[in-house]
Amino acid sequence: MGLITNKHTDNNCQLGIWKITETLDNLRSRIELIPEDIEQLEGFTFLPRKLEWLSVRVLLNEMTQRHLGIIYNGNRKPFVRGNSYHISISHSRDLTSILLSKDRQVGIDLEFMSHRISNLAYKFINDKEYVTDDTELKKYHLYVHWCAKEALYKICDKQDINFKENLTIEPFQPQESGELKGWVQNKRRNELFRMKYFSMGNYIIVWTSK
After folding, report:
1. How far apart are CA 89 and CA 101, in angstroms?
2. Residue ranges per structural domain of the chain
3. Alpha-carbon span 39 to 75, nearest angstrom
4. Are 194 and 88 contacting, i.e. CB atoms less than 8 angstroms apart?
5. What is the pLDDT of residues 100-148, one digit of tens each?
6. pLDDT tens, residue by residue, 149-202
7. Neighbour tally for 139: CB within 10 Å
8. Which of 5, 58, 106, 129 could crosslink 99 through cysteines, CB 3.0-4.6 Å?
9. What class has domain 2-103?
10. pTM score, two decimals?
11. Which helix (H) or strand (E) covers residue 71, if one does?
């Protein structure tokens, strides 16, 4: 299927989503790789990981209409070669997502909703946060919390952050799409971030920029 979303948001960001249905050879034929990229790709053991890696780069090229590369720092934070964009990347199951901006820091998370998140809630929900008691909405509500915290973690460079202690999502009623406010409070920051979210089938996408 390929590209399913490529839109500019109202905060000078660009959001793209790719559905992976292609073969390895098909994705590989769409991009130009330098030797370091080829070495990294060939180092992956499992086919799904190779498809994810290639789909990110194909999506980036589709969004920018350029052949751009991606590098990572020691914290696995991605950068576009040449620093032409701020970038955040997420993938889950057969979807890949990218958030780009030329002048804003960005963070995005995409998750497929499985049935296990309630068993993990104690690890990332704190006493200041609200989660609905509605059994039909609770899983969705928890996933929005989780994705929001992942997006905050990424925009803050993945440094010195505990999801339960340092990240707080202000109470909200879960909708199909909406806006959130999330705090990052640690020795490096005490900042409020405005976030947006929506569902796509059984997936949740949350993003933020600053």
Report:
1. 12
2. 2-103, 110-209
3. 20
4. no
5. 999 999 999 999 998 789 999 999 999 999 999 998 899 999 999 999 9
6. 999 999 998 778 999 999 999 999 999 999 999 999 998 889 999 999 999 999
7. 18
8. 106
9. alpha beta
10. 0.93
11. strand 70-72
β-strands 190-200, 86-92: how paired?
Answer: unpaired
Extract the tokens encoding 43. Answer: 């180092």
Q: 180 with 206: CB under 8 angstroms?
A: yes
Tokens 């790789």, residue located: 33
Beta bridge partners of 172: none
Asked if residues 191 and 202 have their Cβ atoms less than 8 Å apart, the reply is no
The model's confidence at residue 1, banded by pLDDT at 50, 70 and 90, is low
Bridge partners, 7 (sequence order): 15
Q: Could you tell me the two tokens for 133?
A: 């008691």
Residue with tokens 């249905």: 21
Residue 15, H or E segment? strand 14-19
As a whole number of angstroms, the distance between CA 126 and CA 166 comes to 9
> From CA 206, how far away is CA 128, in angstroms rounded?
20
Q: What is the pLDDT of residue 116?
A: 82
Q: What is the mean pLDDT of residues 31-56?
A: 93
pLDDT band at 77 (very low <50, low <70, confident <90, very high): confident
